[in-house]
TrEMBL record:
It comes from the Archaea. PANTHER family: A/G-SPECIFIC ADENINE GLYCOSYLASE/ENDONUCLEASE III (PTHR10359), ENDONUCLEASE III (PTHR10359:SF18). Its cofactor is [4Fe-4S] cluster. It catalyses: Hydrolyzes mismatched double-stranded DNA and polynucleotides, releasing free thymine; 2'-deoxyribonucleotide-(2'-deoxyribose 5'-phosphate)-2'-deoxyribonucleotide-DNA = a 3'-end 2'-deoxyribonucleotide-(2,3-dehydro-2,3-deoxyribose 5'-phosphate)-DNA + a 5'-end 5'-phospho-2'-deoxyribonucleoside-DNA + H(+). InterPro entries: DNA_glycosylase, Endonuclease3_FeS-loop_motif, HhH-GPD_domain, HhH_base_excis_C, HhH_motif, Nth. This is Endonuclease III. Belongs to the Nth/MutY family. Its EC number is 4.2.99.18. It comes from Haladaptatus paucihalophilus DX253. Binds 1 [4Fe-4S] cluster. Residues 44-192 form the HhH-GPD domain. [4Fe-4S] cluster binds at C194, C201, C204, C210. DNA repair enzyme that has both DNA N-glycosylase activity and AP-lyase activity. The DNA N-glycosylase activity releases various damaged pyrimidines from DNA by cleaving the N-glycosidic bond, leaving an AP (apurinic/apyrimidinic) site. The AP-lyase activity cleaves the phosphodiester bond 3' to the AP site by a beta-elimination, leaving a 3'-terminal unsaturated sugar and a product with a terminal 5'-phosphate. Keywords: 4Fe-4S, DNA damage, DNA repair, DNA-binding, Endonuclease, Glycosidase, Hydrolase, Iron, Iron-sulfur, Lyase, Metal-binding, Nuclease.
Length: 228
């Protein structure tokens, strides 16, 4: 049918219930063993697949084991070690700078507040949210990556367009206990079914309540454009 429920709260509850049943083990897909590795991995994941990041960090984390290793590294060498990652030159500079700040201002420990994390070079609110949630067990917001951005619009939960505005809007009606789960569930469904270019609406467990379903609707609300 492709018809959303009457309120955003009802729509959200139904979406979360169905996705939880479909992806009960949904969790972060980046590989890491400590907070520093988590921070580095999330910084590298910007506009890059987690699969690619995991492949790169497999050897990166063997070479660079401490915050000092990154801060004291030659930036060009660090960039070369990241050369299969999108924007590796910039990311090498960001990592080098961020780790220097961690040493100078945080006694070599990855900070545990939103403001301190976002003060680090190359760390935005999305990255900070991931580090807080999975490194410090602090849930301060909703991680809005490309999947969450796409699905929250496509499913009629928000009309906002930017990650920060989407996060702020979702936080007004998504229960705090669901903030972390919502991200994991949307990422899992975005990868498996509700892909950016060619979503499999015919095999989607949310199709009957999705106002963007290609089977019933002409417009993809994620982009605001007509389906091909």
């Amino acid at each position: 049918m492709g018809v959303p429920l009457d309120t955003r709260e009802e729509q959200l509850d139904e979406i979360v219930d169905r996705l939880y049943d479909e992806y009960p083990d949904a969790t972060i897909s980046l590989n890491f063993s400590n907070r520093l590795e988590l921070l580095i991995a999330v910084m590298l994941s910007a506009q890059c697949t987690d699969e690619r990041v995991n492949k790169e960090t497999e050897h990166l984390f063997e070479k660079y084991e401490s915050v000092e290793d990154y801060a004291n590294a030659d930036v060009d060498e660090l960039a070369e070690d990241l050369n299969s990652i999108t924007y590796y030159n910039n990311k090498a500079k960001w990592i080098h700078s961020a780790c220097g700040t961690i040493i100078e201002e945080h006694d070599g420990e990855v900070p545990d507040t939103m403001s301190e994390l976002t003060d680090l070079t190359g760390v935005g609110r999305k990255t900070a949210n991931v580090v807080l949630q999975h490194g410090h067990d602090v849930v301060e917001g909703i991680v809005v990556d490309t999947h969450v951005q796409r699905l929250s619009r496509r499913l009629g939960l928000t009309e906002e367009k930017t990650p920060q505005k989407i996060e702020s809007d979702l936080m007004t009606f998504v229960p705090e206990e669901d903030w972390q789960w919502l991200t994991h569930l949307f990422i899992s469904h975005g990868r498996a079914t509700c892909t950016a270019r060619n979503p499999d609406c015919g095999d989607c467990i949310l199709e009957d309540i999705c106002p963007s379903s290609k089977l019933d609707n002409d417009i993809d609300l994620a982009s605001g454009e007509a389906w091909d």
